[in-house]
Amino acid sequence: MWATVGAVRRLPAAWRFAAGAIALSAASGCSLPGFGAPDPKSSEGESIYSLWQGFFVAALAVAALVWGLIVFVVLRYRRRGDEIPDQSAYNIPVEVVYTVTPLVIVAVLFGFSVAAQRAVTDQDVDPVTRIDVVGFQWSWQFVYPDEGVTVTGGPGEPPEMVLPLDEPVQLDLVSSDVNHSFWVPDFLSKRDLIQGVDNEITVTATEAGTYTGRCAEFCGLDHWRMYFSVRVVPADEFDRWLDEQRAAGGAG
């Protein structure tokens, strides 16, 4: 086991430089790739995105260390004769290191996870508007109760939710029958709709555009048809859309 500890100290200079560069990049907040995750289009999604990046970098660091030590020890201490290496029943310092280190890593990752969860689940105390998101077999209804506007989808006619850009919006999630799940992949978060459970989320869209949403909880035969769209527009355009909906009777 002392060979393994010694291997860390004798790592090639290039490896030590690379490890230092990774640590420096993480500390300075350099831009990292998404590692397969889409760019978040909401402030809540940015917390999840950063957490995913951190977990991926941690996994890469651990994998690089483990594989680097394995390769180094195999090459440096490969068999060169019939001599038997020194034997030891135990080594307390090494055992403490490889026991405590994983616990510290898990504790740090857990702390970042709790922080990200709070950022996603905390409710804005002063949302610009509130939308009742009603899921039913097999479509959606979006009700803007304060504005008197309702948008209802139907078979083959997915509804559209309109959100103001850079403004917090409270979504009250309600199921009228079985369990559903509100999911907009570009927002990087989703939440279930369960009868008898008050689920509320705050969404703050950060980029204008149109995004696809869907039900992420199998809810019956036509579950696959439960699509909807989310259109994010500037605040003035959002106000005009509300005026147009009210002029048309408040139903879309």
Based on the model shown, name its key terms.
5-stranded mixed beta sheet, 252 residues, 2 domains, disordered N terminus, Immunoglobulin-like, alpha+beta
Walk me through what this model shows:
By secondary structure, the chain is an alpha+beta fold. It folds into two domains: 2-121, no CATH class; 129-247, Cupredoxins -  blue copper proteins (Immunoglobulin-like, Sandwich), CATH 2.60.40.420. It is 40% helix and 24% strand. Strand 6 (180-184) and strand 7 form a beta hairpin. The longest helix has 34 residues, at 43-76. The protein is elongated, with a radius of gyration of 26 Å. The protein starts with a helix and ends in a 5-residue tail after the last helix.
Q: Main sheet: which strands, in order across? A: 3-2-1-5-8
What is the makeup of the main sheet?
5 strands, mixed
What is the averaged pLDDT score?
83
Helix content: 40-55%
Gap from first CA to last CA: 70 Å
N-to-C order of helices and strands: HHHHEEEEEEEEEEH
Structural class: alpha+beta
Number of strands: 10
**DSSP helix count?**
5
Approximate strand percentage? 15-25%
Radius of gyration: 26 Å
Give the count of structural domains: 2
Instruction: Tell the overall outline.
Output: elongated
Low-confidence stretches: 1-29
Question: Secondary structure elements and their pairing?
Answer:
Blueprint: H1 2-9, H2 13-28, H3 43-76, H4 92-121, E1 129-136, E2 139-144, E3 149-152, E4 160-164, E5 168-175, E6 180-184, E7 189-193, E8 199-204, E9 209-215, E10 227-233, H5 235-247
Parallel strand pairs: 1-5, 4-10
Antiparallel strand pairs: 1-2, 2-3, 5-8, 6-7, 6-9, 9-10
Helix pairs in contact: 1-3, 3-4
